[in-house]
Amino acid sequence: MTAPIRVLIADDHALIRSGLAGMLGVHADIDVIGSVEDGAAAIRAAAESRPDVVVMDIRMPKTNGIEATREIRRQPDAPRVLVLTTFDLDEYVYEALLAGAGGFLLKDAPPGQLVEAVRIVAAGDALLAPAVTRRLIGRFLRVPPTHRAAQRIGERLTDRETEVLRLVATGLSNAELAVALHISEATAKTHVSRVLIKLGLRDRVQAVVFAYQHGLVVPGEGP
After folding, report:
1. What is the CATH number of domain 5-124?
2. How far from 132 is each of 88, 92, 129, CA to CA, in Å?
3. CA separation (Å) from 199 to 112, 158, 162, 181?
4. Distance, CA of 25 to CA of 11 (rounded, Å)
5. The CATH number of 145-213 is which of 1.10.10.10, 3.10.150.10, 3.40.50.720, 1.10.3880.10?
6. Distance between CA atoms of 94 and 98, rounded to whole angstroms?
7. End-to-end distance of the chain based on CA atoms, in angstroms?
8. DSSP string covering 74-101
9. Residues 43, 49, 52, 58: what is their CA dihedral angle, to the nearest 10 degrees?
10. For labeling, which of 161, 199, 202, 211 is most exposed (least CB within 10 Å)?
11. Of 93, 94, 53, 95, nearest to 72 (Cα)?
12. CB–CB of 69/79 below 8 Å?
């Protein structure tokens, strides 16, 4: 039997912490191992209790969620971080993604979305809410494509891997990649892994940011 996903909750509002714990704790595959009220406490708790996922609010006293995410992701065998935000296009979310967050979710999302988000982030698979993530990055990253940037990518990736990176950046999951490229899902996953290794990227979040920074995808572009 697979061990449950160990979750730590970080939010400065007691009622929100309690509500999140209640929504997650009723599922057999999720174990809420603790909750804390600020980023500094989240850093300590993550190091001590070794959760699989930290559900992180951004705006907290003492140490905010961005700094906490950055520090937590530096820990050995670091847990994944799912960022919670109040606003659809919160400028802090982009900073949190750069700090190493595995995805983000709006605080008013239905309970089912929260549960699925935790599972997705724990698996390290697809980005959460890719359409919203694309829109967010499109707002805060406006880098026009350049021949030099494209050439640099081409020197490190094959044509197929470059196409995989572009599709990942537009929000496609491994299953959707497989359909778009007429390959098996296992092969799609292998291509994504090779792209991350060749570019020295930690995860799919960094791959999305990399693709936008290098002009491989432009804001507003779909698959």
Report:
1. 3.40.50.2300
2. 8, 14, 6
3. 34, 12, 11, 21
4. 16
5. 1.10.10.10
6. 6
7. 37
8. TSTTPPEEEEEESSTT-HHHHHHHHHT-
9. -30
10. 202
11. 53
12. no
pLDDT by residue for the chain (223 residues), tens only, comes to 689 999 999 999 999 999 999 999 999 999 999 999 999 999 999 999 999 999 999 888 889 999 999 999 999 989 999 988 776 555 676 777 778 888 878 788 888 888 988 998 888 765 555 555 556 666 655 555 555 555 677 688 999 999 999 898 877 878 889 999 999 999 999 999 999 999 988 778 778 878 877 877 765 555 4
Q: What single DSSP character describes residue 3? A: P
Tokens of 119: 């599972």
Q: What is the rounded distance in angstroms from the CA atom of residue 80 to the CA atom of residue 194?
A: 20
Residue 218 neighbours by CB distance under 10 Å: 14
Alpha helices of the chain — where are they, by DSSP H? 14-25, 39-49, 65-73, 91-99, 111-123, 130-140, 147-156, 159-169, 174-181, 185-199, 204-213
